[in-house]
């Protein structure tokens, strides 16, 4: 529906549960997760034509995080390669293809990929229980997470160690600052950091 108000228009109807909608950078497509074929796969809806295309095919759930800035890839988390319950981060071509793991620590739960708006790097959360139990009040060791950064050609960089519950990274439009939610001040607040500088 229009942001200014007006009539809501149904985009797609299905008895399945459908969630995590994300607009493509050009605004012409909508990626989302649907359990119409199992635990949850990623689909892309072309808004002008109504064409629907299934992107992932696996028995485990794929939880969509977002698009790359150029609209060529989708980032998602899944525990498809882990015999336990730990999630890994994957990237799959938006046109369809084989997902590739971009962060796959055997003993850490990786999630909440935040693709940089221009340089191809990806910020993400790595930790244990905080992502699935974000609602917990009070500080606990099992809720501590770190913020990491994957940069093409440079590899992995730790932006924040796991001394607090750090969640939901999001880049500023220009990509200079990374915003996130943290309980480092005993309660959850929004913080920002510029890679290479101290949080503020």
Structure commentary:
The protein has no helices and 15 strands. By secondary structure, it is mainly beta. The chain has a domain at 108-200. The protein has a four-stranded antiparallel β-sheet, with no helix packed on it. Strands 5-6-7-8 form a four-stranded antiparallel β-sheet, with no helix packed on it. A four-stranded antiparallel β-sheet has the order 9-10-11-12, with no helix packed on it. A hairpin with a 6-residue loop joins strand 9 and strand 10 (122-127). It starts with 17 loop residues before the first strand and ends in a 7-residue tail after the last strand.
Helical coverage, percent range: under 10%
Percent strand equals 35-45%
Task: Give the terminus-to-terminus CA distance.
Answer: 36 Å
Strand order of the largest sheet: 1-2-3-4
Number of discrete helical segments: 0
Could you state the order of secondary-structure elements as H and E?
EEEEEEEEEEEEEEE
Radius of gyration, in angstroms, nearest whole number: 17 Å
Shape: globular
Contiguous low-pLDDT stretches (5 residues minimum) are: none
Q: Topology, pairings included?
A:
Blueprint: E1 18-23, E2 29-34, E3 41-46, E4 52-54, E5 63-67, E6 73-78, E7 88-93, E8 100-103, E9 109-115, E10 122-127, E11 145-151, E12 155-164, E13 166-171, E14 178-182, E15 189-193
Brief overview, please?
The chain is mainly β and 200 residues long. It is built from no helices and 15 strands.
